[in-house]
């Protein structure tokens, strides 16, 4: 329908000037949907300009899709600006903005907006509630999640859909309440394979691999056929439990017994299991024999196994392949530089990080969230603007004094660097969140924290000490696994 006046597409003209076809709101919505899926943000912005010039942004479907576009390209400011200019906001519009903030790891904002939506007398639909539940899981907002559970029960008195059951189980699992997740599972009738898989993933998150395997045994006795995701969860459970031979058995049975052809993700699970067992050479052999091409996720799995076992030879091969298929992922560079650091090759460590800088890559800022009362408190690295920061730092100072007096031995600080660092410093954001939890919450109330980075060994070790010293249960979800600290121990068994 549209063509450019030159090869650089600087101006638009109609292909058929004699009888031009004027795009409608439906046309623009369809185009924006396509550009969003293809992540063509520059063209999306051009279509936004076209819609503005032609008065099409008043169409609520166009505006909602623009909010969705900006949210998925990481520009939540533009998403919010478009949203604010919509005069007749509906549930779909609100869902687009909620999803934008959740997608960009600003779940606490999504929950706040959900409350504003309720105040505007709009009734949430299934998608709205799912987004809110996912946001609760991301921020460990258990109290908010329970309120949503009550809302769901009242809104669907005859029983709610399996999709909501899965969202509830996921929320309870990520908020540290595996018992309630299991209760939702037991009460869901009928159970489809997605419900079974969601419960397995909750067990996996809590590092309860035998729960996954036992649940699979129950699944086999039912009339429900496992799907490819079931075997990804099952193989991941074998990895957590160190069951190499059992994993091989499940992997072989996939196609022989269940007719499920292994995908790249299943091969990645097997490579992960072999890598964890130190069989790095064998994992490379499996990669060479695969009927599919390895992707970034697989090579990243090999690289992390090399970090675990300080294997520089295989690590360099994995990094070379990884940087070809995924050159802009900062975490890959960080893992590779840490392998060099493990072996004391500091010049190589700095060279990898210099390469990151030259390519304009920057490490995402660490952030932790503490859910307390009706608010989610974010703590971002380098940001000391929290109203209680002075009390937080004072609390940490008191804790470090008790650590030193007890003979506590700090672990290595990560990420690695060839400089001296104070092991007792309030180095990472989860320590700020723990301290604020100690000073703001009741003594018998668990401290629930989520963060966007894997916990380092020093933070993990110090929080174990705090849980025993303060007799507090501290729950941390770090995106890698779920940690339940109590009496000086962690549910992950110090392996994550």
UniProtKB/TrEMBL annotation:
<dbReference type="InterPro" id="IPR011990">
    <property type="entry name" value="TPR-like_helical_dom_sf"/>
</dbReference>
<protein>
    <recommendedName>
        <fullName>DYW domain-containing protein</fullName>
    </recommendedName>
</protein>
<feature type="repeat" description="PPR">
    <location>
        <begin position="192"/>
        <end position="226"/>
    </location>
</feature>
<dbReference type="InterPro" id="IPR002885">
    <property type="entry name" value="PPR_rpt"/>
</dbReference>
<dbReference type="Pfam" id="PF13041">
    <property type="entry name" value="PPR_2"/>
</dbReference>
<dbReference type="Pfam" id="PF13812">
    <property type="entry name" value="PPR_3"/>
</dbReference>
<keyword id="KW-0809">Transit peptide</keyword>
<dbReference type="InterPro" id="IPR046960">
    <property type="entry name" value="PPR_At4g14850-like_plant"/>
</dbReference>
<feature type="domain" description="DYW">
    <location>
        <begin position="420"/>
        <end position="496"/>
    </location>
</feature>
<dbReference type="Pfam" id="PF20431">
    <property type="entry name" value="E_motif"/>
</dbReference>
<dbReference type="InterPro" id="IPR032867">
    <property type="entry name" value="DYW_dom"/>
</dbReference>
<dbReference type="Pfam" id="PF14432">
    <property type="entry name" value="DYW_deaminase"/>
</dbReference>
<feature type="repeat" description="PPR">
    <location>
        <begin position="90"/>
        <end position="124"/>
    </location>
</feature>
<keyword id="KW-0677">Repeat</keyword>
<dbReference type="InterPro" id="IPR046848">
    <property type="entry name" value="E_motif"/>
</dbReference>
<dbReference type="Pfam" id="PF01535">
    <property type="entry name" value="PPR"/>
</dbReference>
């Amino acid at each position: 329908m549209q063509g450019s006046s030159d090869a650089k597409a600087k101006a638009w003209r109609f292909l058929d000037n004699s009888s031009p076809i004027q795009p409608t709101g439906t046309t623009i919505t369809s185009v924006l949907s396509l550009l969003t899926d293809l992540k063509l943000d520059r063209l999306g912005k051009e279509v936004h300009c076209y819609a503005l010039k032609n008065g099409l942004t008043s169409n609520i479907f166009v505006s909602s899709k623009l909010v969705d576009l900006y949210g998925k390209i990481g520009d939540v400011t533009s998403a919010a600006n478009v949203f604010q200019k919509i005069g007749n906001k509906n549930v779909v519009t609100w869902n687009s903005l909620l999803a934008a903030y959740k997608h960009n790891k600003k779940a606490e904002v999504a929950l706040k907006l959900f409350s504003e939506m309720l105040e505007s007398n709009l009734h949430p639909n299934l998608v709205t509630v799912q987004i809110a539940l996912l946001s609760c899981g991301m921020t460990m907002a258990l109290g908010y999640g329970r309120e949503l559970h009550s809302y769901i029960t009242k809104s669907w008195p005859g029983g709610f859909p399996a999709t909501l059951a899965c969202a509830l189980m996921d929320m309870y699992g990520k908020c540290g309440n595996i018992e309630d997740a299991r209760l939702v599972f037991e009460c869901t009738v009928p159970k489809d394979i997605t419900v079974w898989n969601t419960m397995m993933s909750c067990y996996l998150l809590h590092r309860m691999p035998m729960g996954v395997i036992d649940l699979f045994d129950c699944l086999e006795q039912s009339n429900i056929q496992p799907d490819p995701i079931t075997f990804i969860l099952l193989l991941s459970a074998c990895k957590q439990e160190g069951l190499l031979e059992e994993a091989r058995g499940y992997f072989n049975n996939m196609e022989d017994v269940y007719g499920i052809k292994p995908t790249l993700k299943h091969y990645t699970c097997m490579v992960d299991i072999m890598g964890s067992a130190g069989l790095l050479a064998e994992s490379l052999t499996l990669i060479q024999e695969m009927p599919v091409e390895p992707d970034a996720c697989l090579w990243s799995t090999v690289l992390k196994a090399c970090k675990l076992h300080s294997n520089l030879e295989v690590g360099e091969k994995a990094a070379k392949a990884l940087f070809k298929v995924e050159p802009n992922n900062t975490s890959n560079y960080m893992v590779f530089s840490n392998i060099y650091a493990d072996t004391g090759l500091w010049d190589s460590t700095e060279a990898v990080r210099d390469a990151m800088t030259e390519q304009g890559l920057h490490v995402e800022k660490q952030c932790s969230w503490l859910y307390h009362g009706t608010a989610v408190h974010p703590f971002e690295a380098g940001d000391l603007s929290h109203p209680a920061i002075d009390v937080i730092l004072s609390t940490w100072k008191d804790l470090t004094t008790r650590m030193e007096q007890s003979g506590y031995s700090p672990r290595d600080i990560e990420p690695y660097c060839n400089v001296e660092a104070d092991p007792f410093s309030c180095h990472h954001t989860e320590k700020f969140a723990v301290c604020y939890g100690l000073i703001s919450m009741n003594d018998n109330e668990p401290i629930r924290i989520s963060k966007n980075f894997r916990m380092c060994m020093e933070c993990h070790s110090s929080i174990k000490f705090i849980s025993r010293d303060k007799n507090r249960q501290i729950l941390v979800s770090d995106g890698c696994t779920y940690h339940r600290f109590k009496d000086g121990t962690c549910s992950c068994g110090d392996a994550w």
